[in-house]
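Help! Submission page says 'invalid entity' but I think these are all valid:
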Amino acid sequence: MHVVVIGAGEVGTSIAASLASDHEVVVVDIDSDRAEQLKYELDVLTIAGDGTTSEIQTAAEVGRADMVIACTDDDQTNLVACGTAKTLGDGFTIARVKSTDFLRTWEGNEGAFGVDFMVCTDLLTAENIVRVIGLPAAVDVDPFAGGLVQMAEFEIAEGSPVAGQTVSEADRFESLTFVGLFRDDEMTIPRGDTDIMVGDRAVVIGSPESVQSFATDVAPQTTPDHADEIVVVGGSEIGYQTARLLEERDFKPRLIEQDPDRARWLAENLPNTVVMEHDATDTEFLAREHVDEADIVVTALRSDEKNLLISVLAKRLGVDRVIAVVDSPDYVTVFEEIGIDIAINPRTVTAEEITRFTYESVAENIAVLENDQAEVLELELTEGCGLVGRPISEIVADTDVRFVIGAITRNHTLVTPRGDTVLQAGDHVILLVESDAIGAITSMA
Amino acid sequence: MTRTVDIRATLSYTGSIVKYLSATMSVPLVVALIYGEDALTFAVSMGIGVAIGAGLERLDEEPDLSPRDALAVVSLAWLTAAVIGAIPYVLAGYGTASALGHPVNALFESMSGFTTTGATATAEISFERHSHALLLWRQLTQWLGGMGIIVLMVAILPQLAVNGAQLMKSEAPGPGLQKLTPRIAETARALWLIYAGFTAALIAILFGLGLTPLAPNMNLYNAIAHGLSTLPTGGFSPQAESIAAFSPVVQWVFVPFMVIAGVNFALFWYLLRDEPRRMFENTEFRTYMGLVTAFAAVLAVGLFAGGAPSTAIGGVTEGVTANALRQGAFQIASLMNSTGFATADFAQWDAQTRFFLLFVMFVGGSAGSTGGGIKVIRWLVVGKALYRELYTTANPDVVRPVRLGGEVVDEDVIRGIMVFTLLYFVIFALAAVFIELDTARVGDGLSGTEALAGSLATIGNIGPGLGPLGPFGSYEFLPNTTKVLMIGLMWIGRLEIVPVLALFVAGLDE
């Protein structure tokens, strides 16, 4: 596949990196130094220039491209780039936008702006945050197969009942499968006799109910109910969208924003949110407003440093769960190391969303785990592909590709995979696979 | 802001409005001819009105209005309309025993008519004293003033359409103007059509009932006369006994129409456009309907428990469910939105029920209705804004916009409503003090409550007050100074204070 990526920022680079091994990738960036640098980092062709012009796009052979991904930091640039690409060829265009207004316009008339698929960074991030809030103790949650199946990543805390047990001992939940275990940033594919230890991160796939009951089992914290105090710090677009999505789920969050005009705007547009206009780094204010008693604090300020400060402050005040938006991917690990429960990087979220489109019809959905060590894919099996007609144990024995099948949906019902389960054409398979082996698994499907 | 009012343009616009308004005297003229009465009165009055209007109109051939002038035009047009409307009363009453022959009484009656107040300056309402034509003119002034003479002129005069929105905004009851269509003249026409439609419906029902044995007394004249003063929340009746002159069935017919008159007419437009949700989900509408029902229920219970000592008019309500219900519903429907019809002499009721009525009179109708008073929407905003102030005092960091039915109310609008409400109460209180002192001066002292009720009944365009100013009394005995003040109160109350005060402020600037 010939893929043109316009914009070599963090999102563009991340996408190019995951595509480079299996596809022919051309990256366009307006900064010639950046283009030059990327040429050596990744196995891609780079072109320096304005990606919105047909001259540069012609040089990148957009005319014969199967996919054009516009992911610069500027909304208008991305939209114009897609519009230009449509004049040159018929590739599938993907635009990254920040503004939800553009997304709404596009949703109302798909194909608007010459965009075939639009990814709204801030909205995606907010959706991610809200999903994580919905499952306590989960580090990452993604829905698959139209919501029939959920993937969740949990950190095994001290005192958790499954700590010290083997996978087969812990695996007492109907229709739930342990698909991965991260220990010290190293992934292992769990076998029945693998021990689960404190500090591990376990990835499970199963029905939402089973994930839910697993969640309440590993972490005695209760599921958030609507009386829970949720405080969103920072009225950025992500903060606003998070509050809005929480309102939609009948929560009544509090939102702290320093700028008076922005605070007024937020208060007007969020009828069920209590908007407070104050500097969130003021500890006295946080104490006065009993932010320490909050169950969940989300920091969505515009600067990573401030998010770090508030997160640490909230943690010190005794907040149960702190979720931080981290703009720079390099900081994600730092945040999680100093005790912030979850750090969410909008760019990773965006890259994940865009990457899932590059697997075309084969992979319908994707979640990237732990800095791209492994991915969870949803595949639709077709007649005659390498996975159909054989029991799972046989497939696993025949190949050295490391993967785990977490769930199967057949005719919209969930089938729990066991060694003797035979896959059929039309099945949706949700599986975890190491990042290096994605190409191998998608070629089998 | 140093630009002064363009007097010529203002007077010219006022002239056009007066000219066309005078032409409506052709209606009583026809009635006079039918009944073989003094047609000359109306022919002469009409001539004078048209002449004055045309004369003023010529002051400026191509008048150009600024927003400030628009306020002046509206204020002046209403004042001039009242003056022209008083001419038939003076002419007809001249040389007779009619109180309306006196210019102050005539102007009071005319202003009371156009502003849909319904307070009368003559103690004697009868066909022996006044002609059918004159009493119909009295009703017609209410109908013209109800939806607004400016709205009417914008609807029919193309030269007013240019500044129509500005003019209508100054006249429209409530905090703002609701445009229904891109063209203001079409909006004005739509409102008048809905208004005329309801009026026609009421007249038809009343006349129809009159043909059956259910409604003795209800002839074509009465049907038209009462139809003309119900929808504008007027309150004038050519019958001395007001609606008490008719059977209970007829009284019940009036109730829903009086309630409708207090509803924002723009909402009926949505109903006609097949968007009923915009009407039934409107916060003001729901509150208004809720208040009418609740107040009527409370009053009915009060009357059932003996709030009304047996009076000749209205009959016994103590222990009589049907009568208590009817009197309760009718009086609330009539007084809350400022109509002022009566089926019982509530001035004779006991202190609790009278105070309750006084309280109800403060509420008013809806914005965009023909009703007077402070209006339901303002109370809602005032209440919510006050609650917001208390809330933010306790939680100083919270930003909390005032919402009405999910929509955020602009801070400027809130300030405007607060200023209006404060001005309303200040003027109401000052006027009550003046009335009290002035009537005491001439020896006809009113009680404190009666003075308050008199002030409220005129600024709120309600009509009947308490005591001697009650529904079957009159304002005739008041000293002329008090009557002049009340003429001003009715004027200021109908235009909702600001346009009239702005006119004075503009005058002071010069």
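Support: the input was valid. A stray whitespace character was the problem, and the output above is from the cleaned input. The interface with chain A takes residues 395, 397-401, 403, 406, 408 of chain B (CB under 8 Å).
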